[in-house]
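Q: How would the structure tokens look for this protein?
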Amino acid sequence: MISYQSFEAWWWPYVFIAIAGWLATDIWRWLGVLVGNRLKQDSAALTWVRSVATALLAAVIAKLILYPVGELRNVPVEVRLVAVSVGFAAFLIFGKRIWVGIAVALGLLVAGQFLTSALIAAG
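A: Here is the predicted structure in token form.
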């Protein structure tokens, strides 16, 4: 009988996770394509799906701003809030071009981190 423990190769857990992850999610992708092709763009179901997706994205962004991990934790919350606010404003002002909003927010975040660390080092 073949079991998970019978595979000794170091790479086997990664293959198992990749296959299991693919099988678990790919069926939902295909069902989404099949069902989504039959829905009208302004249907209630598609509006609900877009709303849930937008809410999840907003929650992830809020979590990154308010409870960051890694290097972002060293940036003060005020700098993170200003960067995301000005980046969003730039996104709107420049015709909803996402790369503009990301570039502005990232530039402000990096500048704020350098300025904060320079102020801390100075005294």
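DSSP finds four helices and no strands in the chain.

The first helix runs from residue 12 to 36.

Upvote if useful.
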